Amino acid sequence: MKRILTLLAVLLSISSLAQNLTVRHLSSNHSMVRVDSPDRYILLPVQESAPEATISILTDLSLERKISVRLASDKADYMVPLDISAFKGKNLILDVVTRRGPSAADIRDLACWEEIRTSSAFDTANKEYFRPEYHFTPAYGWMNDPNGMVYKDGEWHLFYQYNPYGSIWGNMTWGHAVSRDLVNWEQTGNVLDRPEHLPHLDGQRVSGGVYAPDIKYNPYNKTYYMITTDVGAGNFFVKTQDPWGDWSDPIYLPEVKGIDPSFFFDEDGRAYIVNNDDAPDGKAEYSGHRTIRCVEFDVANDCTVGERRIVVNKGSRPEKQPNWIEGPHLYKIDGAYYLMTAEGGTGYMHSEVIYRAENVEGPYVPCKVNPILTQRDLPYGRENGVYCAGHADLFETADGDWMAVFLGIRPYAGVGGGDYTP
In this predicted structure, which of 1-15, 203-217, 398-412 has the lowest mean pLDDT? Predict the structure, then answer.
């Protein structure tokens, strides 16, 4: 607190270097920006090849949150908006820290200081060269897994995981978009949007943090449920009866181990959770040996009941040692239960497989033509190719048709140091 007060006093004593912004460089890797603007956004310049900087957002000397942004060092590839409308009337400070090291650029010399500015609007026309044109993409940022589609009262609600401040993994945010025709989308608020939702993130590194969530609607209590995994704290869910508004504080499920939990609400009012977990008794027979498990969920008391059961071991063809069976979803169609999962990891061997059972607890019989979705057998380099398809979720349209939302990539070279990107 003493450090923040001292730095704030320094900031208040200097003149503005940009419209509505006052920048003070404190060292070779530390700057602070005071924001005095009625505008809605701060536009942050991003350069794909630049190292990440950490931006702490402070209001009235309190930390609101931290984000990681590849602030432009030589030139800005594009701008991303930081929405500051919630901080109106407060003293707003951006505390910017870049990496140290002999090869690190001096923060005072970064190109971002020439480009950063405030704005009352942000162009969401999606003009970036690599942005998909004909399927859903966030208004800005990089999207990872699509996490679920819900249809209700003539509207499709899509929930997805994305980074609003760049095109790499990080700043994971859970977005919500709404459409009436699956072509035109309105991006609304986020599901996890306050510190109380994610109190355990500090100190978690790559492969930690929060994994891809699942969203379902329960017609029996008219409630939406979003469930996910926080690697540092376990599986939890939040719920609401108004997906446009606020979501509850997290409710943890310590008895549900593993990752990728998903809700299923049956026609009789009972509910279940399926998810990926370790091999039986923790004894994997090969790398990537996983199971899918199922447990009943008590809607009235927000907890699981009974024993967790293994419903799939290894995958759809156990004799071939399938790896990374994950991302399960459970459906009931014409009286039968269908369990759909991803297999093969999220790289070029990614796929989707499905099973059928007469009872919710199984036994589940794999489809004879699995995988039902994959691109791994198609030639690399084909025109307009989509690769690494999998992690799908099914939804039914108002006309009774079934459709899927799934993860895929379009390859390109020379951007961000890789040869492909989602």
Answer: 1-15
CB-side exposure of 366: number of CA atoms within 13 Å? 19
Q: In 65-206, which residue ranges form alpha helices assigned H by DSSP?
A: 112-115
Q: Dihedrals φ, ψ of 320, to 5°?
A: -100, 10
Query: pLDDT, tens digit, for every residue of 361-407?
Result: 999 999 999 999 999 998 888 877 888 999 999 888 778 888 888 88
Q: Which residue has the higher pLDDT, 5 or 318?
A: 318
- The two tokens of residue 109 are 């010399």
Compute the distance between CA of residue 67 and CA of residue 171 in angstroms, rounded to an integer.
Answer: 6
Put residue 170 in one of left, alpha, beta given phi > 0 → left and psi -120 to 50 → alpha. left
CA gap 43, 122 in Å, rounded: 8
Rg (CA), the chain: 23
Distance of CA 32 to the CA centre of its chain: 29
Q: What pLDDT score does 183 carry? A: 76
Contact 378, 349 (CB under 8 A): no
**Which residue is associated with the tokens 């939890």?**
236
Per the CB < 8 A criterion, the answer to whether 178 and 185 are in contact is yes
CB burial readout 168-190, b (16+ within 10 A) else e? bebbbbbbbbbeeebeebebeeb
Q: What is the pLDDT of residue 154?
A: 84
**Pair 257, 278: CB distance under 8 Å:** yes
First and final C-alpha spacing in the chain = 41
Q: Which amino acid is at 202?
A: D
Angle among Cα 246, 405, 342 to the nearest 5 degrees reads 105
Structure tokens at 135: 């399927």
Going by the DSSP 8-state scheme, the letter that residue 347 receives in this structure is S
Nearest to 196 by CA among 145, 252, 275, 260: 252
Nearest alpha carbon to residue 114 among 166, 44, 12:
44
- What does DSSP assign to residue 3? H
Closest among 152, 141, 221, 147 to 180, alpha carbons compared:
152
**What integer best gives the mean pLDDT of the chain?**
84
